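User: I'm curious whether this sequence folds into something compact or stays loose and floppy. Could you predict its structure so I can see for myself?
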Amino acid sequence: MAVTVCFIIIIILSTALTGAAQVVVIRFEPERTVYIEGEALTIRCLAEKPSNIRSYSFFKDGSETQKTNSNILSKPLLTRTDSGLYFCTYTRTTSNDSTESNPITLNVIEPLPVPTLRVFPSNPQTENTEVQLICETALPSTIHGYRFYKDGREVTGTAGQKDNVFVIAEYNSLSEGCYFCQTFRVELAQEIKSPESSMRFLTDKEIDRRGCDGKEIQIDSVFSLQGIKLYGSVLVGKILVLLLLSLFFGVRITLINLRIKKAETEPQR
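Assistant: Here's the prediction. I'll summarize afterward.
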């Protein structure tokens, strides 16, 4: 009786250990509900006692996509065609039996277009007047909200806003800075953001050559302030040279005329 009980216990423990060893999990890294075209993804097949595994197989929508001795399937550049239902299996060195993982869905969507930020009215701004920052996108019907930023910090709050216009009710010196915007939409409870728009610098100064990178904007136009100074100094130099030449030749001509008159009056004496 005791031998029978021990035998049963051994069978139960063996079954439990075998079942535990057969657990396999497929995982996406980074882990998200939605991915954007162009992003990189690592699909990993996790199993207990990996040293005893001979090979791994990855499946998409029921079809095998890769069989390898590595537990990693890399996708360095996702496309929408990568969307589908994935699972993996492995085969141990001790047997030809394979164990299937849980299935997991990969959702890949197109990136949102880059928005454009417009400012109305344009610089220079006037104290205590309204300024509108307008975030425009090519696909407004697909957008769920907008986010506006000043000097890298969001000014629309954590929830963003549904309107594409951010209003500065009364412009003042504290409003000066670099602004940009982003659009977003929500897919499967995940917020998908667009790339950042180009930056716009707000100021009330008539001439302000500071850029949003913290450096002066180099303006090469001949009508720029530096260009006017340069060409002005060159022009003044040329005028001075012409005046000196005119004075020199004027003196020379006067001396020649005096000599001629002197020569004409001498015979009469």
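Summary: Residues 1-21, 215-228 have pLDDT under 50 and may be disordered. Residues 77 and 128 are 49 Å apart (CA to CA).
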